[in-house]
Amino acid sequence: MTSRRTFLATVTGGLLAAPLAVWAQQARKVYRIGFVWDSPAVWPHALEAFRQGLRDLGWFEGQNILIEYRWAEGRFDRLPGLAEELVRLKVDVIVAPTSIYAGAAKRATSTIPIVFASHADPIGSGHVASLARPGANATGLTIIMSETMAKSLELLKATIPGLTRVAVIWDPATPSHVPGLKAVEAVGRTLGVRLQALAVRSATEFDSAFSAIVQ
């Protein structure tokens, strides 16, 4: 996790402009970073690691950068508006940690650089062209969830040979969950395992989803 946060800060800092030595000879500009996430209470240690990573690279809030934070506070329907607000502010780069935030940012702009920190499947969701050459305006780190989920089902089947049915909880609003579900379904067919896909759009739906599993 530490390397992921370090990468996030490094790429964000690198996208802002030319090296610090060059800026010393130019009129000082304060760069703006747009940061869209659920809440500062979600993984506060990661947020502080991001800020510390910027400081380690010579970027200090209120001095040579300003960070425009926008919080969804559990209401992901607000993400399009939050991303569009950052675009109107003409930020220099947008930090969108995971796929649902990166998706909102991608829909809001095709020119402002977007950095993600833990994208489950940037290729399958269409946010990048490839891992080697992302293209367009988004880059970052991926956990390659579609492949790991498929492998997890293979391992589960190997552990329980008689396995015939598996429930999968997913969120239709999260871009990376769609290709992830397709990958698991494809492996399930080859293994003879029937999947029960249960869409969960908010924390309030978990109880009903688990109730459906046991029926």
Describe the secondary-structure layout:
Blueprint: H1 2-16, H2 20-23, E1 31-37, H3 44-56, E2 65-71, H4 79-88, E3 93-95, H5 99-108, E4 114-119, E5 138-142, H6 145-159, E6 165-170, H7 177-191, E7 194-199, H8 206-214
Parallel strand pairs: 1-2, 1-3, 3-4, 4-5, 6-7
Helix pairs in contact: 1-3, 4-5, 6-7
Kindly describe this structure:
The chain has helices at residues 2-16, 20-23, 44-56, 79-88, 99-108, 145-159, 177-191, 206-214, and strands at 31-37, 65-71, 93-95, 114-119, 138-142, 165-170, 194-199. The chain is α/β, with parallel strands linked by helices and 215 residues long. A five-stranded parallel β-sheet has the order 2-1-3-4-5, sandwiched between helices. It has a two-stranded parallel ribbon with strand order 6-7. α3 (44-56) links the parallel β1 (31-37) and β2 (65-71). α4 (79-88) packs across α5 (99-108) and α6 runs parallel beside α7. The longest helix is centred in the N-terminal third of the chain and has 15 residues, at 2-16. It is elongated.
Helix content: 40-55%
Spatial shape: elongated
Distance between the termini: 38 Å
- Main pleated-sheet profile: 5 strands, parallel
Radius of gyration: 20 Å
Q: What spatial order of strands do you see in the largest sheet?
A: 2-1-3-4-5
- How does the helix and strand content classify structurally? alpha/beta
Order of helices and strands: HHEHEHEHEEHEHEH
Report mean pLDDT, rounded to a whole number.
85
Number of helices: 8
Strand content: 15-25%
Q: How many extended strands?
A: 7
Stretches where pLDDT falls below 50 for ≥5 residues?
A: none
